[in-house]
Each structure stands twice: as structure tokens, then as C-alpha cells.
Amino acid sequence: ALASAYSFVFKNTPRQCQNLELDITGSGSPPYTALIIPTGPTPLPNSIEARRITEVSFTNTTASFQLKFPENSQFVAVVSDSTGFGSGGTSAIVTVLSGSDGCFDTTHSVSPAFLFHIEPTGVLITCEATRIWWEQSDVQGNPTFQGVIPGGESFQIPQGPVTSVTGQGVGFSWTPSVRGGTTMLLVGGDDRGLGSAGSNSYTIQDGNSVSCLNSTSPSSTPGSPAGGSYPTSTDGSGVNIGTGGGGSHVDIGAIVGGVIGGVVGAIAIALVLLFAVRRQRLHKGTKERPVDLLQDQEGPSTDGRPPEYYRPEPFVLPDPTVASTHGGSVAGTAAGAGLAASAARPSGDRRESYISSSTSETGGAGLRVAGSSAPSTSTRKSPVPPSFRPVNIIQHDDAGPPTVPPPPPEEPETIELPPAYTNIRR
């Protein structure tokens, strides 16, 4: 079908017993008609059907009317102008949300102005003739019928010659030029208004021929239905977004779920990064320092030398001593005792250290052998050297690496040479 020069949009969300407003977009030819057709099962208990097809006529570009449909029920909207039925587009199936109460009777089902039927009963087949009929006594004026495809195209059903058939009342034959698999509402009415006879929903069946189909054959269009944005599910999560000529069908539940999942994932990643940074800082602050058992607080040497406690102490051999002429026997006895004690220690090395041989400020010896007298002032061949405390130094050796046994001696190689023939008798 050709693209329409105008369409319509709902200005607010359809709610039970509240006013529903719609606007005309584009250039139409007033007066306009909005046909609100209930579809799907009734949500009321005991299968009470309180919905009627509502026809709203208006001349301006805005219409407002009370929606007397119960919550969780569904409908399809079709807008027309003076150029023909459905010229303003057809909405998808719209869901009514909660609103006010008291605008419809929940105890009695409504009835259409008259009943219409099709033959064969209950089925419409592509490119195969179908008889639409009614009882003449039930109609007022000339009945009319329309085909409404939710979210697609709507059209006026052409009326052929009206005939009377026994058992099938008065009616005419119509060949559906609608593609198979299309859901279509068949709407009937008379002089009492469009849709006064109610509607029936059918799914078009494929026939044996498609000769009646062409590029303008009505079907569910792949584009966006008319009506703008409105709920398409009972919980209001599904929303149709479109202006009649473009847009798409968006599932709000999927969008909300994706957003929540993305936020939760971002928070989880941020917590993991924060934990990693804090752990890295903790390890960096508590990194072990080298332990100094002698002086833990001593800083590193600035001149490249080891600390004082690690500096080696040189061992200096004392000068040869000269025996004194006074008290020599006592000194000799003490020295001999020291030598004997030293010799009695196995693997001992007797040495004298300057660490223990410091002298006093008066020049006297810092340590004397027990039982010796004060140094004599008699004439000596050389100055008396300071006396030293005998020190025994024992050097311990560690086991060292295991001794590798020497390889077994190799057996000498025997080389045989031929005779030199040097002892030949001449």
C-alpha cells in the first residue's frame, strides 16, 4: 500500500476508565475517525465481556475520550479520514494499565447490534472465496465490513452482489487477498456505527493459489505500527515506539535488566581493583628490611666501609721481651706456668692481644702477674716492655664440603712396538 500522508500518536498511557488522548501528525483530510477495537480475552472474572468497539469522530488534530476498558485488556486503534478507512495507520495490540474504577459493568456482558458469520465457518483462506452473511432483520441500513491487521494495514472489504442463501441469510462473497499467516480482525457494522456488530479474529490460511496477491496486498508490515509509544504487555514492560512510519519495538524489561546487570558488573570490577590496590600498598609498606643483629637502627655506611662491629681487628705480635734482673724467678715461674697451661690445651694457639694490654695514665702496667712485685728502678739493659695478659686463641674449622674420593688410578696402557733390529750380528 502507498505510504500515508499522516498518522497518529497516543499522548498518554492508556489506563482503565481514564481519558486517552491522541494527536494527528502530518497532513490528513478531516473529519477524522478513531476506531478502538477490543481484542484478546477479557480479563474480568466469569469471562464477562464489558468492552465495546468505540468510534470517536473529531475534526481537530487532537482527540480525547474515556477509555472504558478494564485493566490488562487489549485493543487495536485505527485512524481514518475522509479519504478512506485506515488511511491514518493501525496500531499494534495495546495493553490497558491500571487506572480508575466504575466506568463499565463487571456483572453483565455486552452484546453487538447484530451478528455476522462467514462460510466456511471460522476460517479465511488466501485467494479462496468466503461468504460473509447476516440476518437481514437484524441490521439497520447497509452493513459494512472492514479488515484490520494489528500493526499493519487496515482496509475496507469490498462488497459484491448481495444474495440470499437458504440457511446462510443475506450476504456476499469476498476473496481474501491477504497473505497467509497474517492475523486479521474482521469488523462489521451498519448505520449505527462502525463496529456496531463487533469483530472476530482470524489467522489467514495459505490456499492453493496466490494469484490474487500483489505488491499492494495488505499484510503485517515489518515497520513500526502507528500510535507512537504505548504498553504492549499486561505488566507494562513491553512498549511500542513508533510514529506510524518508523521506529522499532522495544522491550523495556530487557533494557532495564541490561542496565542493572551492567551497573552490578561495573561495581564488582571496581571492588576487585580497589582490593588489588590496597593489597599492593600493604605489601609495599610491610616489606621486610635486612635484619642487623648487632645494631638494627644503624644506617648504611656513607664511605663504603662496613660498620664498626664488622671491621677486622689486626693481631700484632709483641716485641721480644728482656728478662729483668730483679724478680726474674717469679716472672719465669709465672711464664712457665702459662706455657705449661698453654701446652696442656690441645690445638691451642697462644697469642697476646693489645686489647687487654692497655696501660694506665701513670705509665704502669694495666695487668700484672699475680705475686709479682712492683717494677724495679734498677739499671736495665733496655726499657721494660709492658706486660701482657696471656690469651689463648683457638681456631675452629667447619666440616666444609664433602670430600670427593679421588678417581681410581688408571691402568697404564700397554703399547707394543715391533723390534728395532738394532742387535743384528754382523
SSE layout and pairings?
Elements: E1 6-10, E2 19-26, E3 32-39, E4 54-58, E5 62-66, E6 74-80, E7 94-95, E8 116-119, E9 130-134, E10 144-148, E11 154-156, E12 163-165, E13 169-174, E14 183-189, E15 199-203, E16 230-231, E17 238-242, E18 247-251, H1 252-285, H2 328-344, E19 349-352, E20 390-393
Antiparallel strand pairs: 1-2, 2-5, 3-4, 3-6, 6-7, 8-9, 9-13, 10-11, 10-14, 12-13, 14-15, 16-17, 17-18, 19-20
Q: Any key phrases for this structure?
A:
426 residues, alpha+beta, four-stranded antiparallel β-sheet, 2 helices, 23% strand, elongated
Explained architecture:
The chain is 12% helix and 23% strand. It has a 4-stranded antiparallel β-sheet with strand order 4-3-6-7, with no helix packed on it. A 4-stranded antiparallel β-sheet has the order 8-9-13-12, with no helix packed on it. It has 426 residues and is an alpha+beta fold. The longest helix is centred in the middle third of the chain and has 34 residues, at 252-285.
